[in-house]
Amino acid sequence: MDKNELRQEWEQRIASYRASGLTQAKWCERNGLKAHQLKYWLKRIEGSNATPNPSTKWASVVMADSSFHEEDSIQVKIGECSIEVKQGFHPSLFADVVKVLKALC
Which NCBIfam families match (predicted)? Predict the structure, then answer.
């Protein structure tokens, strides 16, 4: 396979990845490829000005009152799911729960 054929193949793969709505890791797993290969070709083909994945969304957090009492909690919503986080929560457990919810929602 020459360089042009390889590039065309990766352009098709990238289009498939973009259309899938999957994370890079999930798409690569389903297509038998390594994530570092996809990242390399994304950078090579789309350049450093690549547009972000359209499914990525950011939300702002506004704390009305900076004083946080022990009985207070915050509610985090991801899609249709919500989590109540109270003082003294376990950060790594919370991060794991958020990862699972992001994959499901």
Answer: IS66_ISAeme5_TnpA (NF047593)
